[in-house]
Design brief:
The complex is a heterodimer of chains A (328) and B (297). Chain A is mainly α and 328 residues long. Chain A contains 15 helices and no strands. The chains are: A mainly alpha (328), B mainly alpha (297).
Chain lengths: 328, 297
Amino acid sequence: MLKALRDPWPDNRAERTLGAVALLVGVGVIAMIVFVAARAWPVFAHNGLSWLGSGGSLETQIANMQATSVNPPATAFHLRAWPLVYGTLLSTGIAVVLGMAIAVLSSIFIVELAPARLRKIAIPVIRLLASVPSVIYGLIGVLVLVPFVGNHLVTAAQKASVQNYVELTGAGLGVTVVILTVMITPIMIALICEALMAAPSTWREGAVALGLNPLRAVLAVTLRAVRPAIVAAAVLAGARALGEAVMIQMVSGGRSFTPNLSHGLGTFFYEPLRTLASAIVDYHEGIGAPALRSTLYAFAALLLFSALVLSVAGYLIKLPLRKYQVRA
Amino acid sequence: MLLCAWTAGIGLCVLAAAIVIYMGYRGVQYLRPGLLLERPAISTSQSQTGGILDPLIGTLLLTVIGIALAVPLAVSSAIWIAEYGHGGRVRQTLARVVESSIEIVAGTPDIVLALFGLAVFQLSLFAPLSFRSEGGGVYGRSFIAAGAMMSLIALPPLFTATRDGLQAVPVHMREAAFALGKTRIATIRRVLLPSVRSNIATGVTLGVSRIIGDTAIVLLLLGETLHIETQGPAPVLSLLRGTGSTLTSYVYDNSPAGEGAAPQKAYAAAFVLLLFVLGLNLLVDRIGRSKSLTSVI
């Protein structure tokens, strides 16, 4: 056995082996899409696209699913997933907008403004922020931020104003968005910095030669040239935020409530929510019930589909940058 | 504008420092060395809930399984795509398919991978690889199941690092090897692989830091048992088929979001986890001479 490994390998057999392993990876990924879609299918077959709509209480609907038998009737699949879709869109959307502003500013700082010494610190710091496990962010959120918000920021009047629908504990949209922003901003910074560094420096030098001060030149020329990369960074970071499950499950309050702006802006940010991904974590223990299992796979299928669409979109948005040889 | 950019940049550094210092403070407060060697126990009092030995072993075991599965897959695919993926139409298409599918994995949320793993390992074909209930029901939960999905998480960074490394090797190195009469595969083994060793090492480090930080897969596929539970009589297989927990799932379970409310233990375990992540980050800096930022995502 060992001797066979040490001897020279026949060339075409080696190639076939390597190719087979590579194709195995491809087949595995296709299998993943097929498996998730197949298990989610009954849900869409019974509900159609109104599954995404609103109506009724999600908690009751899921409790009904858990109560059904091994062969669930068609009615057992009844679910209106809007609260989860809304929660996902809301938390992701706000986090991406906030993160984008911070990311563009910090990227300019890192690439253009920071003295070399500070830049040497900033790059590992961004890398660290990107690699801190989500459960640690969640832990800090649930043990530090949530009690702080609940005890000091939420006023008694705000609690009273919505006490008929929901209890404000501090866990909710605000804390979720803050932590989500911290988690996705490093991703955006990495992508934007890469593009800024790759943009031809002669353009900026030309602008400086025409009399702009260096910062203005960056804003007017370089930043404008890498606009597609900025949008693509936002899209890819959004895809990451969509799939965040554990952290959101820890700090979002875990109730299928739809935060409502008409309750007032302050209250809005304290209201709990649940996202598609966090619902999977929350309900995975009931996965033995066939109807609930299909529903969880349907959540996963929706997430997988959105992630696919977003990564294709990110790729397409960046295409125009190819002509500057930006390989971001 | 200038001020805003400075604030944002400095603010992020301060934030990172604050997270590390706060976790360090809590870690020093609650982590005793003995905790690392004690097994966890059930108790209503936090001081009686034991240590984090089992989660620590779980994390290490899962990392080993995940990397052991991911390295051959990723490196072979990268070699095939970089070295053989250009000859002929069919090959180019297939190479494109493989590359895109790895990009799909990179963009797939871990919770979706976890559900996929559950679907696969509940098939009766794979039943021998996972934990069974008393009545013979297949749960699809085991170190093998979780490790297999972890390898998918580690795959994209490993693949990208290896492929980029191979593509950066100058063509004349290959030509020189061919001129000396080496076959393609001999060139790969003797010339190319040694020269991309540091790229592979960077990829492995990134893969490890993904694996040890992942929670969703552990929650769904490892069973979240307090102790490592073995299954069956065979010595190694019983462990691989068994269930357990990792540092991440231990933190999750002991936080107010999980069942056990032992925040002190959660802080201690999270601190250990953060130390691992910091260490791996330093390692990436050491190995990877290129200071690319995008390698982290």
